[in-house]
């Protein structure tokens, strides 16, 4: 079990890992080893996630989410396969943790009387400044 929060955990069998060859420099070693990790997690098919968390997770995933509802995370920064696996898993856990946080609903508020008065006073002041700039017809 992978613990996300004290009340939420996902089973390890829900995560698929595949190893691919990493791109970038590394000499001849990079052509022979598959050190990059591609981690797949099916959000829609996960029995561990509550529906509201799954919906928020799909919104947060963005381009990492496939049309089938699978999150794909690729880690290839490290030369070690083990460290790439740990990093990919850490990224997934962080993403799910972020999805567990509920956004506070916005409560509409009204402006205070003092703020209305300040706004009207500044408008009046500005109006006087602009009126002083107007050209007046010459009184001959």
Automatic annotation (TrEMBL):
InterPro entries: Pep_chain_release_fac_I, Pep_chain_release_fac_I_sf. SUPFAM superfamilies: Release factor. Residues 121-134 have a biased composition (Basic residues). Coiled coil: none annotated. Residues 100-140 are annotated as: Disordered. The keyword Cytoplasm does not apply. Its EC number is 3.1.1.29. One of its GO terms (biological process) is rescue of stalled ribosome. Keywords: Hydrolase. Residues 21-37 form the Prokaryotic-type class I peptide chain release factors domain. It is an enzyme of class 3 (hydrolase). One of its GO terms (molecular function) is ribosome binding. Pfam families: RF-1. Belongs to the prokaryotic/mitochondrial release factor family. This is Aminoacyl-tRNA hydrolase. The gene is arfB.
């Amino acid at each position: 079990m992978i613990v996300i929060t004290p009340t939420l955990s996902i089973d390890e069998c829900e995560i698929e890992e595949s190893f691919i060859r990493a791109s970038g420099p590394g000499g001849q070693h990079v052509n022979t080893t598959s050190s990059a990790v591609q981690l797949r997690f099916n959000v829609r098919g996960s029995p561990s996630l509550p529906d509201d968390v799954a919906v928020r997770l799909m919104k947060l995933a963005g381009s990492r989410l496939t049309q089938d509802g699978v999150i794909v995370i690729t880690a290839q920064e490290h030369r070690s396969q083990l460290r790439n696996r740990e990093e990919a898993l850490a990224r997934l856990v962080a993403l799910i943790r972020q999805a567990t946080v509920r956004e506070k609903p916005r409560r509409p508020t009204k402006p205070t009387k003092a703020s209305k008065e300040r706004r009207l006073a500044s408008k009046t002041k500005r109006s006087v400044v602009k009126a002083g700039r107007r050209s007046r017809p010459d009184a001959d």
